[in-house]
Each structure stands twice: as C-alpha cells, then as structure tokens.
Write a structure and sequence with these properties.
The protein has 279 residues and is of the alpha+beta class. The chain has 7 helices and 10 strands. Bound molecules: zinc ion. Zinc ion binds next to loops.
Length: 279
C-alpha cells in the first residue's frame, strides 16, 4: 500500500506530462472504483487544462482550469503510467495492450495519455468544486502535512496530549499527522529511539508543551519521509533498506546497539522495533 513518499514520487513522475496539458479525451471503462465516479465525470474533465498537480497526505490533487479539482487516491494497488499516443508508437498505446485493470485513460494535448491501473479497485477519483477542497470528506479531518512547517514538535505534542493510545497508533491516526502508514511510523519511532508501545501522552507536558521526545520524533518523521522520497526518486546513493520494517530477528543497525529487531502486533498491524534502543 503506497504511503506518502510513494505518492509524492508518483506526483513528481506524472506532473511533467500533466501540468499545462489539456485533457482532450477520457476513456472511462467502469462506473466505479472504491466509490462511483462523480456525475458527468468525463464531461467535466474534457477541454480542461491541468494548472497544477499537488499532493495532500496520500491524495493527488489536479487543479483544473474550470476551477474544479480532480482528487485521486491510489488505494491499495493503483498506479499511473504515462504512455505516448503519437502515431509512431501507437502499438504501445493503452488501447492496444488491453490490460483489463486499466480503468481510466486521460488523453492529453501533450501527445501522451495518463493511464490509471488498479487491479483491486480501492482507488478513488472525485471532482471537487472550486474552493471546497479542504472541506472534502476525505480531506477535512486530516492533520498537518508532515513535511510542512505546520508540523513540528509543538503540533505533535498538542495532538498527543492526554492520548492514552500507543505512540504507534497515534502516528497512524491521520488527524495527528497526515500520510504516515505502517512502514514510516515504525521507521520514525526507531530513528527517534522511542518504543512504539509507549503512550502517546508522553510527548507532552501536562500543559501540552512539547517534551524532548516530541522534538526527536517530529524530526525523525521528517527525516525518514525525506529520505524515502529521495530513494523513490531513484537516487542510487541512498541505502534502500529499511531500518526496522520487515527486519524481525535481524540485528539492529543503530551504531553501538546490540539489540535484535522484534515484530509485535498492535491494533492488528505489525510493528517492528528494537527493544534495546527504543525506550
Ligand atoms: Zn537498537
């Protein structure tokens, strides 16, 4: 399941083909994904120019010249690919390869097509009226973007003040911080040296001010996401291995730590951590 870094890398990969291009045609091959496509979906897209492609948590947002925003979520198995639709390479066009999981094809004035493929169909596409993006039901309760200035130790401790859930559960709560999933929650807690099983309330003083652990955790979240985005973008000099995720029974990679990574279940999800250096 894609997390924030994967979605950000999709955004960076498809933006050059999409932004400033006009949508000249849309092939819609089913009535729904996780939910039905909005009314008049194709009609509302055709002839629109994509002004910008941004990301909010794990959602991609394409601002259209009509004022509406095309909201897209990859779900569990969704992916985008850009294909050329110029005659010389017509053989590679989406119509020719016949993948039954190509559910939406956006034909663009740039001579390319953007194909959305989603075998499990947990993806979402919606059209949001002008000025209503922040109020959309999927976005309205999201917490701060982890890589923005709005997210820092103060914001994190405020959100966790008095919370009786575990630190791991708090990081997966999209109201606390948006876009974090199972992988990067585990990785960030490891970098911060905090046990995923501790109570979230330890990040804040009784008055709600950030403790030192909140500073470490907020910085660790930003660091692991930034590194993951760089890795996704294909920087060959980055080590591609996770520190704890799916490394159960392996040696902890932290210098001077002699611990072994453990896998435990928390609220039905696997958590990976080192009991020796994560306290
Ligand atoms: Zn360790």
């Amino acid at each position: 399941m894609p997390e924030l870094p994967e979605v950000e890398s999709v955004r960076r990969r498809i933006a050059p083909s999409l932004v400033r291009a006009r949508i000249v045609g849309v092939d819609l091959r089913r009535p729904d994904l996780r939910q039905p496509f909005p009314r008049h979906f194709v009609k509302r897209l055709i002839r629109q120019t994509v002004l910008a492609l941004t990301r909010r948590a794990k959602y991609l947002l394409a601002a259209l010249s009509s004022g509406e925003t095309l909201l897209m979520h990859l779900g569990m198995s969704g992916s985008f690919r850009v294909v050329s639709t110029r005659p010389a390479t017509r053989a590679a066009s989406p119509a020719a390869d016949g993948d039954p999981h190509d559910h939406v094809v956006f034909h663009l004035s740039s001579g390319t097509a953007l194909v959305f493929n989603d075998p499990r169909r947990f993806g979402v596409m919606d059209l949001v009226p002008a000025g209503a993006v922040d109020e959309h039901p999927l976005l309205s309760r999201l917490g701060p973007e982890p890589l923005s200035d709005a997210f820092d130790a103060a914001a994190l401790s405020r959100a966790c003040r008095g919370k009786r859930t575990s630190l791991k559960a708090a990081l997966l709560d999209q109201r606390v911080v948006a876009g974090l999933g199972n992988i990067y929650a585990s990785e960030a807690l490891h970098v911060a040296g905090l046990s995923p099983r501790r109570r979230a309330s330890i990040l804040a003083t009784p008055a709600g001010a950030p403790r030192e652990a909140a500073e470490r955790l907020a910085a660790a979240i930003k660091a692991v996401l930034t590194q993951a985005i760089a890795r996704q973008s294909g920087d060959p000099y980055r080590d591609s291995r996770f520190l704890v995720y799916e490394r159960q029974d392996a040696r902890c990679l932290k210098p001077q730590c002699r611990g072994t990574i453990r896998r435990v279940m928390q609220s039905g999800r696997s958590t990976f951590y080192c009991p020796a250096c994560q306290r």
